Recover the amino acids of this structure.
C-alpha cells in the first residue's frame, strides 16, 4: 500500500507539477466591537501565512491542536472561505479569488469529507439522492444510469445497493461516514480534503474507514489532505505531515522523519503527549508534558508563537520570528533551537518498548 | 495499591430500558469491585454500557422506562435500592462524577468560584468567607494558576482544560470516596489530556480515592489504570489487571481493540487490523456469545452463552470466551507478531 503510493509519487510526482500549491495563505476573521458603530477592533489570525504543495497521489497530513487553524486552512484552500490574502493554485490554475461561477467546474475536482457523519448528511433526503445529486447537478448522469452509478458507488464503499432508498438515521456512524465518502467520490475528484474523518468513530470502525480510504486512493488516483488531531491516524495515512500551531506551519516533512526525528519542540511535545497503549513502554518513556494552554489566536505571542510554552525558549524566541528552514531528514521547521539528532521523540524504539 | 475491603461492590447490575423497539438491555449482569487508591478502567465502544453502568451508580438512569436490578453497595448503602433522598446524600458526599464536556456541566451564568462555594455550602455549614477560601484552595490544588482571580471568572472565560480542572475541583469539594470520570479527556487536546491524567492519578494517590475511569482510549488506560473491565454489548467480556489485559488478553474483542489502535511506538503497518461489522443492536442481541457475529474465531459452541469465568488459570483474570487457552494464544498473535484480531 505505502509502496504503491510512494512509487506513484515518484513516477508522477518528482518531476511533474504539484496538484496543489499554496503560497502565503492568510485567513483572518475580523472581530467587531462598538455598540453604535460596528467597527473592526482586531482579528482572529486563524491562518497566518501558510505555504505548502502536494503532488498528485500524495497524502498530506495536517495536525495540530484545536484552534491551530487546520480546519480553517482546509476550508480556505477549497475556497469555501474567501482567503484574506495569498495564492492557491490547483492543477496550475490560480483559484484564490475566483468568482463563484468560475469556481463551480473546479468544485468537481476538489471534494471534502467531514468529521461529523450525523451533521453532514441531510436527514430528510434518501441516500440515493444524497450521493446522486452532485452527479445530477454537474450533468454526469441521469435517470436509470444515475441510479446504476450510485449503486455501484455504494457497493464500492461497503454499503449495499438496497440502501439507496434509506434515510441517514437508519445508519450507524461508520456507515454514515461511508455515505459521506461515496458522496465525495461521486464527481471523481482529484483532491479530497478529509477533515477529522474518523474522530467521531469507535476505534474498531476507524480502522475500517481508514483502510477504505487507502484502497480508494489507489483505485481512483486520489490526492488527500488529511486533517486530524490524532497523531496515530495521521502517521498511518500520510506520506508527508505538516504540524500547525496558532495559524502557522511550524514543521513539515516526510511523515517518517517528522515522527521519528522531530525538529521543532512543539512536534516533540505533541508526540510525547500521546499515551502509548502499552503499560511497560509508558512507564519507561520520559514524558515531556507541556505546561499551560494554547494562547488565543486573536492575540498570539510575538515572534515565535510557541515561546510561551516552549521548554527550550530563550530571549531570541520572543524577539525574532524564526523562518522555516530545511533540516536533516528533509523536513522544514521554524525554530531557533532545533532539536538535534540525539533528541528523543515521543515514541521509544521498538527495542526498548 | 489496593488493600482491604472494597469501597464499592457491584453485583449483577442490570439496566433495561423499555423502548418502542423493545427492551434495550444496556447493562446486563455486570459485577465488579473497586478499592481505595485504585483506578478501575471501564473500556469499550459506544453503546457497550460503560456510561450507563456509571450513571446507574449515581441513580441518574432512573425513570419510568428503566428497570434497574442488582446491588451496588457503597459503605453500607445499596445504591440500586436507595431512595432518591438517600441517594442525593451519597451523591453529594461520597461520589463525585466528572463528565466529558465540562462546558455543559458548569453553569454558564455563574462565576466558577461561586459554583464551587455553593457546592461546599450545600454539604457543609460554613461561612461564606471560609467556603470561598476553600474553593480557592481547591482550584489551586487542581493546578489553576492565579486561583484567587480565576475564581471570579465565568466558565466561558476558561479554556477546555481549565474547565475540566474546575469540574474536578468541584467534584473534590465534597471530599468524595469514589470519583467517577466519564471520558474526562476526550474533548481535550493531547497536551492538555496529559496534564489532566497526571492530575487524576495524583489525586487518586494523595487522597486515597477509588476511581472509576470510563474511556475508549487504551493509551489513557495504559497510563493510569490498575485494573480493567472490557465491556461489549452490555456485558463484561473480560476483566483483569492492567498487565493481564495488555499482555495476556483472553477475549477476541480485547484483541481487536488492542490491534486496531494506531500506535506511534511501532512500525507503521501497511494495513490496519480491523474488527469486521459493527456492534449489535441492544434491542436484538445475538444468541450465545454476543461477539460471535464479528468474531473470526467463532465455532459451534459459541451459540451458547459463555459465563464470565477464570479461564486463563490465574485468579482475578476472567473472560467470556469458549476458545481453550492454547488456541487463544495462537489465535491472538497476528502475522506481524502483535496481538490483534485477524482471520485465521
Amino acid at each position: 500500500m505505502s509502496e504503491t503510493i510512494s512509487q506513484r509519487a515518484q513516477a508522477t510526482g518528482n518531476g511533474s507539477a504539484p496538484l496543489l500549491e499554496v503560497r502565503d495563505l492568510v485567513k483572518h476573521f475580523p472581530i467587531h466591537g462598538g455598540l453604535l458603530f460596528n467597527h473592526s477592533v482586531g482579528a482572529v489570525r486563524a491562518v497566518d501565512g501558510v505555504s505548502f504543495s502536494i503532488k498528485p497521489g500524495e497524502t498530506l497530513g495536517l495536525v495540530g491542536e484545536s484552534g491551530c487553524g487546520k480546519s480553517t486552512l482546509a476550508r480556505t484552500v477549497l475556497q469555501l472561505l474567501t482567503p484574506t490574502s495569498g495564492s492557491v493554485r490547483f492543477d496550475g490554475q490560480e483559484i484564490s479569488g475566483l468568482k463563484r461561477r468560475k469556481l463551480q467546474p473546479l468544485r468537481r475536482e476538489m471534494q471534502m469529507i467531514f468529521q461529523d457523519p450525523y451533521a453532514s448528511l441531510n436527514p430528510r433526503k434518501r441516500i440515493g439522492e444524497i450521493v446522486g445529486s452532485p452527479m445530477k447537478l454537474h450533468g454526469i448522469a441521469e435517470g436509470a444510469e444515475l441510479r446504476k452509478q450510485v449503486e455501484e458507488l455504494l457497493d464500492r464503499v461497503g454499503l449495499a445497493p438496497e440502501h439507496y432508498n434509506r434515510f441517514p438515521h437508519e445508519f450507524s456512524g461508520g456507515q454514515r461516514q461511508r455515505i459521506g465518502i461515496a458522496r465525495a467520490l461521486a464527481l471523481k475528484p482529484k483532491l479530497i480534503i478529509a477533515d477529522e474523518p474518523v474522530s467521531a468513530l469507535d476505534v474498531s470502525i476507524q480502522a475500517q474507514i481508514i483502510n477504505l480510504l487507502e484502497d480508494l486512493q489507489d483505485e481512483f488516483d486520489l490526492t488527500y489532505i488529511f486533517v486530524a488531531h490524532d497523531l496515530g491516524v495521521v502517521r498511518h495515512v500520510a506520506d508527508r505531515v505538516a504540524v500547525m500551531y496558532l495559524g502557522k506551519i511550524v514543521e513539515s516533512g516526510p511523515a517518517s522523519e517528522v515522527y521519528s526525528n522531530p525538529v521543532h519542540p512543539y512536534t516533540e511535545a505533541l508526540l510525547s503527549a500521546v499515551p502509548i497503549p502499552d503499560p511497560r513502554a509508558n512507564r519507561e518513556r520520559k514524558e515531556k508534558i507541556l505546561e499551560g494552554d494554547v494562547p488565543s489566536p486573536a492575540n498570539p505571542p510575538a515572534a515565535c508563537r510557541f515561546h510561551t510554552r516552549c521548554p527550550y525558549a530563550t530571549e531570541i524566541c520572543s524577539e525574532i520570528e524564526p523562518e522555516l528552514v530545511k533540516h536533516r531528514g528533509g523536513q522544514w521547521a521554524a525554530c531557533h533551537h532545533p532539536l538535534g539528532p540525539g533528541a528523543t521523540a515521543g515514541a521509544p524504539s521498538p527495542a526498548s518498548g | 495499591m489496593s488493600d482491604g475491603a472494597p469501597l464499592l461492590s457491584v453485583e449483577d447490575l442490570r439496566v433495561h430500558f423499555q423502548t418502542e423497539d423493545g427492551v434495550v438491555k444496556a447493562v446486563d449482569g455486570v459485577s465488579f469491585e473497586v478499592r481505595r487508591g485504585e483506578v478501575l478502567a471501564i473500556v469499550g465502544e459506544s453503546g457497550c454500557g460503560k456510561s450507563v453502568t456509571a450513571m446507574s451508580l449515581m441513580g441518574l438512569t432512573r425513570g419510568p422506562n428503566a428497570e434497574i436490578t442488582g446491588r451496588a453497595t457503597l459503605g453500607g448503602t445499596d445504591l440500586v435500592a436507595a431512595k432518591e433522598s438517600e441517594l442525593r446524600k451519597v451523591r453529594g458526599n461520597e461520589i463525585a462524577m466528572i463528565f466529558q464536556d465540562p462546558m455543559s456541566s458548569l453553569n454558564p451564568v455563574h462565576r466558577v468560584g461561586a459554583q464551587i462555594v455553593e457546592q461546599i455550602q450545600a454539604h457543609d455549614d460554613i461561612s461564606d468567607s471560609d467556603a470561598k477560601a476553600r474553593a480557592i484552595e481547591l482550584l489551586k490544588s487542581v493546578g489553576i494558576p492565579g486561583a484567587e482571580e480565576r475564581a471570579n471568572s465565568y466558565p466561558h472565560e476558561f479554556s477546555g482544560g481549565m474547565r475540566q480542572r474546575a469540574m474536578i475541583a468541584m467534584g473534590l469539594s465534597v471530599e468524595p470516596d469514589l470519583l467517577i470520570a466519564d471520558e474526562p479527556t476526550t474533548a481535550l487536546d493531547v497536551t492538555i489530556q496529559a496534564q489532566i491524567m497526571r492530575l487524576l492519578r495524583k489525586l487518586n494517590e494523595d487522597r486515597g480515592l477509588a476511581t472509576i475511569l470510563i474511556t475508549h482510549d487504551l493509551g489513557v488506560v495504559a497510563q493510569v489504570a490498575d485494573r480493567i473491565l472490557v465491556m461489549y454489548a452490555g456485558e463484561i467480556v473480560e476483566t483483569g489487571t492492567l498487565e493481564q489485559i495488555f499482555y495476556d488478553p483472553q477475549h477476541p474483542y480485547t484483541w481487536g481493540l488492542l490491534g486496531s489502535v494506531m500506535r506511534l511506538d511501532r512500525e507503521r503497518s501497511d494495513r490496519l487490523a480491523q474488527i469486521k461489522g459493527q456492534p449489535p443492536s441492544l434491542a436484538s442481541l445475538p444468541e450465545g456469545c454476543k461477539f460471535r457475529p464479528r468474531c473470526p474465531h467463532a465455532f459451534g459452541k459459541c451459540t451458547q452463552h459463555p459465563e464470565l469465568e477464570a479461564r486463563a488459570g490465574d485468579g482475578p483474570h476472567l473472560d467470556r470466551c469458549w476458545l481453550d487457552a492454547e488456541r487463544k494464544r495462537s489465535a491472538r498473535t497476528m502475522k506481524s507478531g502483535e496481538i490483534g484480531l485477524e482471520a485465521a
Notes: The longest strand of chain A covers residues 39-54. Residues 1-14, 342-353 of chain A have pLDDT under 50 and may be disordered. The first helix of chain A runs from residue 2 to 13.
